Amino acid sequence: MSEVLKELKYLESHEWARVEDDGKVSVGITDFAQHALGDIVYVDLPEAGDEVTAGESFCEIESVKSVSGVYSPATGTVAEVNEALLDSPELINEDPYGSWLIKIENAELSDALLDSEGYEAVLENEEQ
């Protein structure tokens, strides 16, 4: 079973969101998503200042298997990108919940976000 952290919010498309103490929203992909992708070899991140829209793709992650779009769990402005992933995209495989992709400021969270129990129910259906 994939790891699901209780304190995060999730999209059914396997992204997570964490509201930080400063009000920014950190975004990454879930443990399930990184397992499904396999070895991640490249991440195409947006730039600070770019606008993102909830439910729309904001970057692509390339693995040895495929290229997948990553969907935003919030609408807002990219405040920060995780530059470490540009040189070491495999960090997402090693620690999917510690390896955030972007941080969004002035964020309005998507109504589609699930709590950990709701996301676990999605996983149960997908892992059967």
- The CATH topology corresponds to OB fold (Dihydrolipoamide Acetyltransferase, E2P)
* Strand numbers in spatial order across the main sheet: 1-2-3-9-8-5
Largest sheet: 6 strands, antiparallel
Helix content: 10-25%
Into which percentage range does the β-strand content fall?
Answer: 35-45%
Shape: globular
CATH H level, superfamily name: RNA polymerase II/Efflux pump adaptor protein, barrel-sandwich hybrid domain
Total number of beta strands? 9
Number of alpha- plus pi-helical segments: 4
Show unreliable segments. Answer: none
**Which structural class best describes the helix and strand composition?**
alpha+beta
Overall pLDDT score = 96
**Rg from alpha-carbon coordinates:** 13 Å
Question: Domains counted in the coordinates: how many?
Answer: 1
- Topology order in helix (H) and strand (E) letters: EEEHEEEEEHHEH
User: What is the end-to-end distance?
Assistant: 11 Å
Q: From the coordinates shown, what is the CATH architecture?
A: Beta Barrel
- Please write the CATH class name: Mainly Beta
